[in-house]
Amino acid sequence: MKKPIKIVIYIILTSTLLLSQNIYEKNCLFCHNDHFPTSLERMFMSYIKVYSGEITFKASLKGYLQNPTKELSAMSDLFIDRFGIKEKTTLSEKELEEAINIYWDLYNVRNKLK
């Protein structure tokens, strides 16, 4: 009798945790926290060097995630040779834009210089 109760509690806790995460945390951090030696902050800095403005940054990242190619990536050739090109996103356009906006707000230094 105790085992089914534990399973139900586990399912409730797991689903609560998943529901409390935003689209960025659910879809981006999972892979980037564990599988890459480069943090998302360093990747952000690589992209901001190439695409300095918010509009170009977001548009280029969205374009890359929808159709990832080596030519569209702001990462170095060495990084791409080692880790490859990511797979095309499965997020909807709205979800992708939301995740990119969260990413921008999280690492954009200009917002923190007030």
Helix and strand arrangement:
Layout: H1 2-20, H2 23-35, H3 40-50, H4 54-66, H5 77-83, H6 93-107
Helix pairs in contact: 2-6, 4-6
State the end-to-end distance: 57 Å
Report the major sheet: none
Helix content range of the residues, please? 55-70%
With helices defined by DSSP (H or I, 4 residues minimum), what is the helix count?
Answer: 6
Rg, Cα atoms, Å: 17 Å
Q: Specify the overall morphology.
A: globular
Extended strand count: 0
Describe this structure as you would to a colleague.
It is a single chain. The protein contains 6 helices and no strands. The chain is mainly alpha-helical. It has one domain (22-112). 7% of the residues are buried.
Structure, briefly:
The protein is mostly helical and 114 residues long.
List descriptors:
mainly alpha, 68% helix, globular
